[in-house]
UniProtKB/TrEMBL annotation:
Transmembrane segments: none annotated. Gene3D superfamilies: Metalloproteases ('zincins'), catalytic domain (3.30.2010.10), Tetratricopeptide repeat domain (1.25.40.10). It comes from Achromobacter agilis. Its EC number is 3.4.-.-. The lineage of its organism: Bacteria, Pseudomonadati, Pseudomonadota, Betaproteobacteria, Burkholderiales. The keyword Zinc applies. This is Beta-barrel assembly-enhancing protease. GO terms for cellular component: membrane.
């Protein structure tokens, strides 16, 4: 099963991995995964969960600047909801996991320190069922549960430690630059992938992740066949690619017959069951087919595949294909074609939160702001838990100049979704600025930067806010915020210096 240790190439995110590797690192070290020293209990020499999470946050703070990172509330909510559902059935405790999407056609998913799990668009598009996708995520969560990443990273392996020091150096450079250097951000994410590729997981670690993942998959109500079906698909892809580069999974993370047989035996030992795929799965799968297109050729291919599905399929899958075509037309700025395909997607009374969101986006693009407000208001009433629709509604309120209403709505949603949707603070700051509240705007923008790990930018906003304020009590509050941000920045620097010198 793919994981961060297996990444050999992942488009733009790790396209620089080879160039960023530590000079003088022997090529042989890349070819032989070092595995884990044992499958016993975690040793005191390992990263503590708190330090591991901090390292993951530092990597993500820069990784979010990578052009292939997908900043999409619909996808993030779907993946993280699925991941947390699976994690709630993890053996030995519930890990803190956060999923994010990566624009890359390669079939892969990967875990990073601290429970951050990246999911390639290629994996989503190639999954024939929701259970197949869940199987891969469950396997990656299995690595998180067993703390394989932390245990592998803290082995006393010279090459691994050199690469970890190089990663820490890249992150420190990003901090020194205020977090605004995209090239350094890409380097940090790329080196994180390279380190885990160097570490590798042993056969015992893979079996542990398989078994933990299988338990989570079945207890969460997904079809156990999803794991064996995905294993078979990946094994077949490995054979097809053998000798021709093979991609990350085929070259560094081969699926053994033993692992395949173990999963199949476990499936046979369970009563037959069938999981009904959610509509969200099919609409987001169609969306990711469009999103992962990077050039004219891949976009044409995606369009043709969606057209083929329109002709061959029925029900929700046909609707999802029309939605994908509508989204592709919207991205080409052809609003008339987008609306036409969206109407076809809604045939037979079908609807989804994704379709509703695209309808609002089309209205906003046409500057039909009252219509956008009407559509988004109806959508949030029907799907109140969908964060993307909540954001669209706030945008519609802002578009018609109702910034006071937007502030009230955004503050309510921050209480509900704030930890998972930092952009709400950014939008709140925009409305506060428009309403003549520059101090509040900068304080809330600082909160957005803190949540995304850009501590230097957060401090800058707070310093501006303090300079604008004439209220002693407010200035004192801002001083406290500035100290908290400086402390967090210092803690992150100390953590990275520790790895750099380690």
């Amino acid at each position: 099963m793919p994981s961060i240790c297996s990444i050999a190439k992942r488009g733009a995110i790790i396209g620089l991995s080879a160039a960023l590797a530590v000079p003088g690192l022997p090529v042989a070290a890349w070819a032989q995964p070092v595995g884990l020293p044992s499958m016993g209990s975690a040793s005191s020499a390992e990263l503590s969960p708190m330090l591991e999470r901090s390292l993951g946050q530092a990597i993500m703070a820069q990784g979010r600047r990578d052009p292939t990172y997908i900043d999409d509330p619909e996808l993030s909510q779907y993946l993280t909801t699925m991941g947390r559902k699976l994690a709630s059935f993890a053996p030995g405790g519930v890990p803190d996991v956060e999923m994010f999407g990566v624009r890359d056609p390669e079939i892969n998913a990967f875990a990073m320190p601290g429970g951050y799990i990246g999911v390639n668009t290629g994996l989503i598009v190639s999954s024939a069922s929701e259970s197949e996708l869940a199987a891969v995520l469950a396997h990656e969560i299995g690595h998180v549960v067993q703390r394989h990443i932390a245990r592998g990273m803290t082995q006393q392996n010279q090459n691994g430690m050199l690469m970890l020091a190089s990663l820490a150096g890249a992150l420190l450079a990003a901090l020194a630059g205020g977090g605004g250097n995209l090239a350094v951000g890409v380097a940090a994410f790329g080196q994180a992938a390279a380190i885990n590729r160097q570490l590798g997981f042993s056969r015992d670690a893979e079996r542990e992740a398989d078994r933990a993942g299988f338990q989570m998959l079945t207890k969460a109500g997904y079809d156990a066949q999803g794991m064996s079906q995905m294993f078979a698909r990946l094994m077949n892809a490995s054979r097809l690619n053998e000798g021709a580069g093979g991609g990350s999974w085929a070259s560094t993370h081969p699926l053994s017959i033993e692992r395949m047989s173990d999963v199949q035996n476990r499936v046979r030992g369970l009563p037959a069951s069938r999981h009904v795929d959610s509509d969200d799965f099919w609409y987001l799968r169609a969306k990711m087919r469009v999103v992962q297109g990077r050039d004219a050729v891949s976009l044409r291919s995606a369009g043709q595949q969606l057209q083929d599905e329109v002709q061959a399929l029925s029900g929700v899958r046909r609707s999802a294909a029309y939605y994908g075509l509508a989204l592709q037309a919207f991205q080409r700025n052809n609003q008339a074609e987008a609306e036409r395909n969206l109407n076809l997607a809604a045939a037979d009374g079908r609807n989804s939160s994704q379709m509703a969101k695209l309808g609002v986006d089309i209205a906003l693009a046409r500057k039909e702001y009252p219509k956008a407000l009407e559509l988004s208001q109806a959508a949030v009433k029907r799907w109140p838990d969908q964060r993307a629709l909540g954001i669209a509604y706030a945008q519609a309120l802002q578009s018609v100049g109702r910034h006071t209403d937007a502030q009230e709505y955004l503050r309510a949603k921050i209480k509900q979704w704030g930890n998972d949707e930092p952009s709400l603070y950014q939008m709140l700051a925009q409305s506060e600025e428009r309403n003549g509240k520059p101090v509040e705007a900068r304080r809330d923008l600082a909160r957005f930067y803190v949540m995304t790990g850009a501590f230097a930018a957060a401090e800058s906003q707070l310093q501006q806010a303090r300079g604008m304020s004439t209220d002693f009590y407010e200035q004192s509050q801002i001083d406290v915020q500035i100290k908290e941000v400086k402390d967090k920045l210092a803690e992150e620097r100390q953590l990275l210096e520790r790895f750099k010198s380690g």
